[in-house]
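4.2 Preliminary Data

To establish feasibility before requesting continued support, the project team ran the inverse folding procedure on a target of 293 residues. The structure was first converted into the token representation described in Section 3, and no sequence information of any kind was made available to the design step. The complete token record follows.
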């Protein structure tokens, strides 16, 4: 068995078809079928169940295919290490960010990296914080933009910028005419927050708890854009990070808090064992050049 055979196994498993898998692998269907049969014979097990209509992995086949994926991933990692050794500012960079940041930072960051680091191929991942931390530890991504602090002996962090919170209210809301707001101004207001699992929800709840504010329990959103539209519709008010503020929005006002304004610290997080130090340092510098005005 060789690496080519592993690619064949994965293609058949993904497409559930020898014909389509052969097209993906750029070989004839009989050649692919013969090669898969040779692998099964050499192992002495059946990897796929074959019918006239479809191909399905056996229970053991699923385990073998999962192992094949891991092996090819590690081989790719070895090749990537070799490329990095030759040019530290080249190769794939798998970068993660949580949803309330990724939506607003990635569109600015991608063209900036293409210009400043033309040999880098950026692979973006948008997930909640817990999933990104898990992917970091498992080596599935190289770094992540997260809200600090992150306390983990396996991970290193660097602060990049402070993302201040503003109060978002409808244009005809009684608070809309204020130059600045204090947490006390929010008393009795319908406060809209994101659903469980979003780090921005955690930051907002901290503000609420410190100032005796209550969330509107019957309404929760899965994203900031939903919250934005609900505020415009007069459903309630919400906290909006600076990165998400759009000056051209109609029907909504973004009010700064009186000092000390609440904020979250955005930082870069990576494995302490990473060999991408030069590239990650440059990435952090590029993020710090972004503008949110």
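Position-by-position output of the design step:
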């Amino acid at each position: 068995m060789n690496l080519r055979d592993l690619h064949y196994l994965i293609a058949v498993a993904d497409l559930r078809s020898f014909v389509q898998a052969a097209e993906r692998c750029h070989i004839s269907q009989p050649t692919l079928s013969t090669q898969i049969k040779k692998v099964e014979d050499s192992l002495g097990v059946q990897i796929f169940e074959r019918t006239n209509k479809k191909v399905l992995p056996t229970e053991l086949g699923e385990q073998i295919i999962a192992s094949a994926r891991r092996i090819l991933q590690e081989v790719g990692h070895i090749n990537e290490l070799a490329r990095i050794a030759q040019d530290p500012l080249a190769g794939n960079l798998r970068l993660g960010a949580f949803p309330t940041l990724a939506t607003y930072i990635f569109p600015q960051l991608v063209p900036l990296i293409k210009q400043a680091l033309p040999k880098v191929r950026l692979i973006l991942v948008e997930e909640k914080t817990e999933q990104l931390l898990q992917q970091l530890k498992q080596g599935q991504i190289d770094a992540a933009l997260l809200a600090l602090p992150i306390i983990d002996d396996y991970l290193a962090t660097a602060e990049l910028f402070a993302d201040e919170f503003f109060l978002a209210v409808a244009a005809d809301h009684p608070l809309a005419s204020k130059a600045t707001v204090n947490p006390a101004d929010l008393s009795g207001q319908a406060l809209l927050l994101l659903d469980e699992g979003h780090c921005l929800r955690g930051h907002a709840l901290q503000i609420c708890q410190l100032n005796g504010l209550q969330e509107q329990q019957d309404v929760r959103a899965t994203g900031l854009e939903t919250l934005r539209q609900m505020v415009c519709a007069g459903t309630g008010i919400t906290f909006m990070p600076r990165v998400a503020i759009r000056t051209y929005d109609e029907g909504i006002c973004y009010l700064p808090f009186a000092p000390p304004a609440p904020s979250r610290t955005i930082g870069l997080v990576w494995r302490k064992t990473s060999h991408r130090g030069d590239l990650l340092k440059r990435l952090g510098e590029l993020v710090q050049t972004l503008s949110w005005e």
